[in-house]
Specification:
335 residues, mainly beta, five-stranded mixed β-sheet, five-stranded antiparallel β-sheet, 2 helices, 22 strands, globular
């Protein structure tokens, strides 16, 4: 039982593997699934790679489904799109061969040139999907589903250029809330995390600066990862950071604590990373040296956390941890 409370749902069936005997919290805060990568690159008929994908709890008792998600599936033409998927245990997945066909909530909504790096979160009565959407450059697309069968597309939330849109699981005051990373049209050599609010998920404002790169593994750019996890100590926010090495970008990730009612205010941010590329499936792939967190499952009863992360822009991995160990580590290692 965790001493730090996760304000969320009980998830007794969360994917989980105990810390191996060779590991300790002093050596590594979180540990990798021994059977990584959990999702291979070729799980669909035409996928070149499956990575940077979002997973949420979802019940379909008729078919025994306990988890569903939206997955980035680059095809063998290297076109980027997102596909729906379902799982009975969060480990073995069935992903649709065809990309999601969104139903437009307004016939004048523009088409997308591409879709990638989705996040999914349940808010109030439906599952919202936010993704990097191709519309005169990368911007943030938004849609929703009730059943992971029919998907509805809404207005883009942010104009080009922007990436890494992450919605909060509840309103802040009377408004929906989001983190994003304004960018440029290419592989941005910069990036800060920005907070925004909206009364209706259409019009966004109240923009606040949250965090900037600060050296070391997070010296080039940073961006929000999974949707924030609400705890009694603050919002637990996993985020990626990028270092520019002599051989290109290196993506690692860590976590920070944010104020519950003013999520642009940082309570504690660590200097070290938690996970960085070191296994072969993280070091070698279409884009080497990438560990990119996108989805987190957190069990309110035990404080267990499972994070799905993209590995070398090719496959998907799982990493596990405990909320009390993570929060206490953040405080002990804060900048």
């Amino acid at each position: 039982m965790s001493s730090i409370i996760v304000n969320g749902s009980s998830l007794p069936d969360i994917p989980w593997e105990d810390r191996p005997p060779s590991s300790s919290p002093k050596k590594e805060l979180m540990w990798r699934f021994s059977k990584n990568p959990v999702i291979p690159r070729d799980l669909t008929l035409r996928s070149n790679s499956i990575f940077n994908s979002a997973v949420v709890p979802f019940k379909d008792d008729v078919n025994g489904i306990k988890f569903a998600g939206v997955f980035r599936c680059d095809d063998t033409a290297r076109h980027m799109d997102i596909n729906a998927g379902r799982s009975k245990d969060g480990i073995n997945w069935e992903i649709d061969d065809e990309p999601i066909k969104f139903i437009k909530t307004d016939p004048d909504l523009p088409d997308s040139d591409y879709k990638y790096d989705p996040r999914v979160i349940f808010i109030e009565d439906r599952y919202y999907i936010i993704w990097c959407n191709g519309y005169h450059g990368p911007c943030l697309g938004l849609g929703y589903t009730f059943d992971f069968k029919k998907f509805y597309q809404m207005e883009n939330t942010m104009m080009p250029f922007n990436r890494n849109g992450v919605l909060f699981p509840r309103k802040i005051g009377n408004n929906f809330a989001m983190y994003s990373r304004p960018s440029d049209s290419g592989h941005t050599p910069f990036g800060d995390i920005i907070y925004s609010e909206s009364p209706d998920l259409v019009y966004w404002g109240k923009h606040r600066h949250v965090m900037a790169p600060c050296g070391g593994w997070q010296s080039t750019k940073i961006g929000a990862g999974p949707c924030p996890i609400e705890t009694t100590e603050g919002w637990l926010v996993f985020y990626h950071g990028v270092l520019t090495s002599c051989n290109g970008f290196v993506y690692s990730f860590s976590a920070a604590l944010m104020d519950l009612e003013k999520p642009w205010k940082v309570i504690a941010r660590p200097k070290p990373y938690i996970i960085n590329p070191r296994e072969i499936y993280e070091l070698a792939g279409d884009v080497p040296n990438v560990t990119f967190p996108v989805a987190a499952l957190a069990d309110s009863d035990t404080g267990r956390i499972a994070i799905y992360y993209g590995c070398a822009d090719t496959v998907t991995g799982l990493v596990f941890g405990k909320v009390d160990e993570i929060v206490n580590w953040i405080k002990a290692n804060k900048i």
